[in-house]
Amino acid sequence: DGSQRSALDLHQLYPLAEWWSLTLLFPNPWLRICQVSPHEFIQAVMAASKRRFTIEQQGDPVDFWSWLLNSLHMDLTGGKPKKSSIVSRTFQGELEVTTLAGTGKGKAATATEDVVEPVPFLLLGLELPPTPLFKDALEKNIIPQVPIYNLLAKFNSTTISDDIRQGRRKFRVTRLPNFLALHFKRFTKNNFYIEKNPTLVTFPVKSLDLRDALPVPNGSNGQPLPSKYDLIANVMHEGKAGQQTGTAPYRAHIHRSVEKAWYEVQDLVVLDVLPQMVALSEAYFQVYQCQQSQQPQTATKGKEQGPPQQQQQPPQPS
């Protein structure tokens, strides 16, 4: 009975419905008026996250990405995290994590053999090299640069990552998602302050080939899966760690594939930006799209493709 449904259930479904209404408008070229209200969606986010994310203050983009995808996935699956949804099929990949025996404080601490576990992921965390302690000849701090392929080598199944609690572990990618999210861990927090790592990561805007950094898993046909990705979103951080006054520290670079152009977005300010400037930013969070998933659908031969006859209905959580 709909009248007996609690307000909490409707409150949990509101972010999903609001997000679905936005996605119906954004990619639809057949609508004469293609306007959306981000304020309505932000209001839904504020209510659903219990003001964890607010309109008054910028939050961490990585925290928001994780919260949003997990919230949508839980709404779509009726609270069953292991059930498949469009979120997991689009954004979720899988790792094979091998923990060396006798290390860490988990299962491998008392195991006689290495512990191998499959671990799903919505984003991959990449550690930056330590900041140099010494200055150069001009008494200026050296800002190092590192290629993104060096950071992705963490998942080549041979590089060992040391962690006191988790143990010595090796990572191997067993399933690649259509949209790959990367998080560059720039901030280190201790009991006194938050320190930012200013290392610049060099990355290609087009055709990031994962085969240059890690072994690509095979598909059901025994052939390697598509491994070339194009950058579609880049979030950079400017200023010092923990800065929330004055100019907002986070800015987003968004690629509009229809125009083949890049835009810099900060709140409601949108500016044109060159791809070369995107590659020079202090990247903090990125989203790549697999090139195979970008193939346009061909129209029926001899017929002109027209507007869709019927709008797609939003999915209902099971």
Account of the 3D structure:
- With about 325 residues, the protein is of the alpha+beta class.
- It contains six helices and 16 strands.
- The strands form four sheets. Strands 3, 7, 11, 12, 13, 14, 15 and 16 form an eight-stranded mixed β-sheet that branches. It has a four-stranded antiparallel β-sheet with strand order 2-1-6-5. Strands 4-10 form a two-stranded parallel ribbon.
- Residues about 1-15 and about 295-318 have low confidence and may be disordered.
Could you give the topology of this structure?
Blueprint: H1 7-25, H2 38-48, H3 61-76, H4 86-91, E1 93-99, E2 115-121, E3 124-127, E4 145-147, H5 148-152, E5 156-161, E6 169-175, E7 179-185, E8 187-189, E9 194-196, E10 200-202, E11 208-209, E12 228-237, E13 250-256, E14 261-266, E15 269-273, H6 275-279, E16 283-290
Parallel strand pairs: 3-7, 4-10
Antiparallel strand pairs: 1-2, 1-6, 5-6, 7-16, 8-9, 11-12, 12-13, 12-16, 13-14, 14-15
Helix pairs in contact: 1-2, 1-3
